Amino acid sequence: MKKIILHYLLTLLMVLTTMVLICPQQVMSNSHTEEPVIRDSVNLVTIYTSVNNANGQFINGLKAGDFEIFDNSMREQIEYFTEEEAPISLVILFDISSSMQEPLEESRKALQQFLSSRQKQDEFCLFTFSSRVQLAADFTTNTEEIINALALISPNGLTAFNDAVYAGIEKIKEAHHNKRALLVISDGQDNRSIRRNDEINSLLREVDIQFYAISIPKEKKDRLQVWLMKEGQDTLKKLASISGGKTFFPNNISELGTVANTINNELRHQYSIGFTPNGSLDGRWHKLKVKIKGDIYNQFVIRSRAGYIARIR
């Protein structure tokens, strides 16, 4: 009887030992099978999309099933969708060239009004630019640091607009939030930069940020100023169209505060839509198109970034 019991105990011990040895291999196997899911999420392409009606009002309440995404004309499956407000990392580029002498105070007030509507986790960074570009305030959640940095400035010099945009794009790579934007307050009339327009356009295509601009109006304009202003406005429009942002052209400086509120509201009312590309990650520029299904598509104005560089992230 004792021999039978001993044999049983030895057999049970062998079985338990075998289970202990096998279990770690099963855990490793399970984690290995989940690896492609992690890899796919890394390559997720996120598109921040604004939807407005003909009057410029934001359209809320749409669902993932209402949207279609096309990558180089190929329809993609939506894997991520939310309308929830997300914290923003914003780089502000504030023109302090001599042409900003008259509208400076109203521009400062408009920026202060914009910052007053911030959310708790939002972070801001400020560059000022004239003949050269200066980091006036690094990323902070304290908006008083941004306002104070503008308190003692005096406009002078030329306008290194492209150099400022380049610095802003490079700086935003240090941001802590996924939702990122540039806000430019300027007339866009570059007359000093080392960077060329095509260089800035290419750089903006490389990153996932939205470009917003307030084009400062001139109260008095001669023929040359009109030509230069149009050239500056065309530059702002181009950058906004690449990134899915928008440029605003107020008729006079008294409208700057209203425009600042409009930009703030738009950044708070966007759909975040994500997909993992089915095509090859070939390192090339892929054109994106966001549509809303059905006949209502033609009733809305839909803005999102124009495309992305398809590469492994």
Q: Number of DSSP helices?
A: 7
| Uncertain residue ranges | 1-40
Name the average pLDDT: 86
CATH homologous group name of the largest domain: von Willebrand factor, type A domain
Shape field: globular
What is the CATH-assigned architecture of the largest domain? 3-Layer(aba) Sandwich
In short:
This protein is an alpha/beta fold. It is 37% helix and 25% strand. It has two domains: 45-83 and 270-309, no CATH class; 88-268, von Willebrand factor, type A domain (Rossmann fold).
Please tell me about this protein's structure:
The protein is built from 7 helices and 14 strands. 37% of the residues lie in helices and 25% in strands. It has helices spanning 2-42, 104-115, 143-149, 161-172, 197-206, 223-243, 256-268; strands at residues 45-52, 67-71, 74-76, 80-82, 88-95, 123-129, 133-140, 179-186, 210-215, 246-248, 271-275, 285-292, 301-303, 307-309. Helix 2 packs parallel to helix 7 (256-268), helix 4 runs parallel beside helix 5 (197-206) and helix 5 packs parallel to helix 6. Strand 5 (88-95), helix 2 and strand 6 (123-129) form a beta-alpha-beta unit. The protein is globular. It is of the alpha/beta class and 313 residues long. Mean pLDDT is 86; it is low at 1-40. The termini are far apart. The longest helix has 41 residues, at 2-42.
